[in-house]
């Protein structure tokens, strides 16, 4: 008769994985570079979206008359 595997040897507790970035003090905080990168990316996408929307709506109602030679 053999003992269950849990009683045969002491189990080693799992080491918790670090999901956040830790500073030297051990405090979890996101990197300033990461925040600036995300903010800059959002700003670029916002500016491009506004320019595309503005250019598509500003040319919608304008019709150029055909050029007449004199």
UniProtKB/TrEMBL annotation:
It comes from the Eukaryota. The chain crosses the membrane at residues 32-54. Keywords: Membrane, Transmembrane, Transmembrane helix. Residues 1-23 are annotated as: Disordered. This is Uncharacterized protein. It comes from Nymphaea colorata (pocket water lily).
């Amino acid at each position: 008769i053999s003992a269950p595997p849990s009683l045969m040897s002491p189990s080693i507790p799992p080491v918790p994985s670090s999901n956040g970035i830790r500073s030297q003090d051990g405090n979890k905080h996101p990197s300033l570079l990461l925040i600036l990168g995300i903010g800059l990316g959002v700003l670029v996408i916002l500016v491009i979206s506004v320019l595309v929307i503005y250019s598509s709506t500003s040319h919608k109602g304008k019709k150029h008359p055909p050029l007449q030679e004199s």
